[in-house]
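The pair is quoted verbatim underneath.

:::
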Amino acid sequence: MEALGLLIIRIIVGFYYSAHGARKAFGWFGGNGPEKTGDFFEKIGIKPGKTMALFAGIGECIGGILFAFGLLTPLAALLIIVPMIVAIKTVTHKNGMFSDTGGIEYNVILIVIALGIVLTGPGSLSLDALFGFKFW
């Protein structure tokens, strides 16, 4: 059951996070794409905005997919944790704790989930397990 629980967490979080990145990088799922996201990045001091929006979005897409499949799990977690720390530092920290006020809630939850999975391992129902990758 443990492996199934980890699989469910990885798939749901991974694919939602991948979609989160696709909104930035490609404008999919009703996202702003690199132009508008880049404009926002420029306003908060992340330059060059469009380039950084593409890097962030593509990194989030890749990180989410790797996380969902349990492949290269430490890298996947890093591709989730680092952008969420940047989001807290640049945007959400000033809005308090909860997401309904634009606060850090979403970012913290993703950081904790990614950290928890990387510390426990992705489980036996993962590509890391299938390929015999041991990182911890």
The chain has one domain: 2-131. The radius of gyration is 15 Å. Residues 2-131 form one domain.
